[in-house]
Design goal:
The chain has about 290 residues and is of the alpha+beta class. It is built from 7 helices and 12 strands.
Length: about 290
């Protein structure tokens, strides 16, 4: 039993060490490297948790079997005891099935490294940074500072933005009659200059890409620019890029178009104006002004 548990924990160890992140470099496009510090911390947490659970279960099973065998050797009739244990087990399974579900799901979450402390995740009702992971619950802090305690049995899917790599997609609206090729050139040059700065240079792992026109409307064309980033750094990179792209468009005479709006003014009530002794009559013309 102990050999099997050790084999399982060693498998968890190898799975954690296989995790990689982009290496920091003086320019974007750096190679991938192994995240030793984070991997060791996650390995210790996962192996310790799963090993503790398996050892506890193994100890309970071994002691239960040993006690039953000792009672049988002493000459006692263990049939009623086993029957009672079966009834109690069925009752507990119905009464604590949600608790059992939470613990079983928690074991798989930890063993499969679906999430860990410091990861930014979306589990459905709650999304944010993981602050604590146990076998029964997961604690997630959202952007508003609210700490969510989520039962593991209620987690049906996990979206993890902190594993491997991430991507930021920026949609920039430009005038409908703009020269697309020139706009693409302006956006690409601005993105490369922004990525070369110290603010986000170490967080970008590939060259920016222009994916083309994403949306067409009566007022604008929306062009999408995409950049691959390090885990959990996509939001910081996006903020820097948006400012750089906006300034580049302004410097080249491209302004983000405003949505066309119509303001309708209704005609005044002439009957009420005459009764009030009005000396002038406003024409009954309902006009629309383009904004």
């Amino acid at each position: 039993m102990q050999i099997a548990i050790k084999h399982i924990t060693n498998s968890i160890d190898r799975g954690t060490r296989a995790r990689v992140i982009p290496a920091s470099s003086k320019s974007y496009g750096g190679r991938w490297t192994q995240d030793i510090k984070t991997a060791n911390a996650r390995q210790a947490q996962r192996a310790k948790t799963v090993g503790s659970v398996l050892r506890s279960v193994a100890s309970i099973v071994i002691w239960a079997v040993a006690i039953v065998m000792i009672i049988a050797d002493l000459g006692f009739n263990i049939a009623p005891v086993l029957a009672s244990a079966g009834v109690v087990g069925v009752a507990l399974s119905f009464g604590a099935q949600s608790l059992v579900k939470d613990y079983l799901t928690g074991i798989f979450i930890v063993a499969e490294d679906q999430l860990g402390i410091g990861d930014w995740v979306d589990v459905g009702e709650a999304s944010g940074e993981v602050e604590a992971v146990s076998l029964r619950t997961t604690q997630i802090r959202d952007t508003n500072g609210t700490l969510w305690h989520v039962r593991n049995g209620e987690i049906l899917r996990v979206g993890n933005s902190s594993q491997g790599w991430a991507r930021t997609n920026i949609d920039m609206p430009v005038p409908y009659d703009a020269d697309i090729e020139h706009v693409n050139s302006v956006l690409m040059d601005a993105a490369k200059e922004a990525i070369a700065t110290d603010a986000i240079r170490d967080h970008v792992v590939s060259e920016p890409e222009i994916w083309g026109v994403e949306k067409v409307s009566g007022e604008a064309l929306t062009i999408r620019l995409s950049v691959k980033t390090a885990p959990s750094e996509q939001w910081a990179v996006a903020r820097v890029l948006r400012l750089a792209l906006k300034q580049a468009l302004d410097n080249n005479g491209y302004h983000i178009p405003l949505i066309n709006q119509s303001v309708v003014r209704s005609a005044p009530d002439h009957t009420a104006s005459q009764q009030a002794g009005a000396t002038s009559i406003i024409p009954q013309d309902t006009g629309a002004t383009e904004g």
